[in-house]
Specification:
Elements (H helix, E strand, L loop, with lengths): L23 H6 L11 H7 L4 H4 L3 H4 L4 H7 L5 H20 L5 H7 L5 H14 L2 H13 L3 H13 L2
Helix pairs in contact: 6-8, 7-8, 8-9, 8-10, 9-10
Length: 162
Amino acid sequence: TIELKGAIPRALRPQLGNWIFGCDVCQTVCPWNGRHRQADAAAAAALFAPRVDDLAPPLLELIELDAAALAARFRRSPLRRVGRRGLLRNVCVALGNWGDPAAVPALARRLADHEPLLRGHAAWALGRIRTPAARQALDRAWLNEADPDTRIEISLALDDAP
């Protein structure tokens, strides 16, 4: 998903699970990790030791970060390459696949994001969560949305929501 700049095709979104970066596992175990030189084995072992956050990304925390916070958090990571737009798009998909109602407030806030791509993916995620609160957020967003692609995402999500 790092190379894809637009919307993730709807048919592929469920297959991503909670992965927010196409090579999440590779980032954890690869001693090269985009540094263009082989890393010292001991340093690589310490740097890439599995952490809970790598295995289950803190999705609710990530979706709330602004551009500056994301840049600071991922300044030494290949995740910075995908940028705010791509990373949060993927986080929305992961939250939709997680399906936990705890994600509804954060996704509802993302429906007001300045990026139509993020609003559309947040709508898709809310449609997957399928709670009355998710439906209410989608109904409100429908009234204010001007972007045609995002309106389609909201419409499809409303079809999926209870």
